[in-house]
């Protein structure tokens, strides 16, 4: 649940956000023509790109290239809420604030790699930047167009000076050269994440009906059937080769409800998860 939310726009585009959210909660970001810097002040998050996943904790940030993302707000020992700041870098806004004179480092990237996420810990420079942003969130009456333009340029320069500078440059340069992600790569990367078919379609930038047609073409069956079967096959393997608790296996295979997992497992494998494990152990003793 969203407890508090603040937003600052520039040229009619959202550029700065601050949110306080109680877990569990899932955000979806569709960013076809912008990069985004996401920084966590409190709590813990899982950020899902089409083929990547990053766990982001307090005082960590992540740069996201243009594309589609899910962000799960997770329970955390150090805070009841998750508090985060996001800085959006829309291509249209960057063109206006730089007046077509982009920084040299964005134009000198020879080949844009299919990078989606880059995570790193906070530095003193970045911490000072975030603290300054919070002042503007708390005092919106003093915010001007010139201040917002300077704050966006400042962030880009800070990111370009980090230990992750080369990767950050690749991600920002991706604003100008779109990198396509293969359909099957998105599916295989998210088979065991707790996503609905509709959510997977968003990660592939397809409508639900187009996603189902594309899935049928690649896998010869429906997405719901294929994904569920793959999860249950993985669960059986984990029951055979590990001593993990059944609840942990269910979670690792993308099931959020243990009872639903147990029913699905028994229907597919003919035994409950516990009986399946016992049966495997009995056979190994014969």
UniProtKB/TrEMBL annotation:
Domain HTH araC/xylS-type: 181-279
SUPFAM superfamilies in the record: Homeodomain-like
GO molecular function: DNA-binding transcription factor activity; sequence-specific DNA binding
Keyword terms: DNA-binding, Transcription, Transcription regulation
Name of protein: Helix-turn-helix domain-containing protein
Organism (species): Poritiphilus flavus
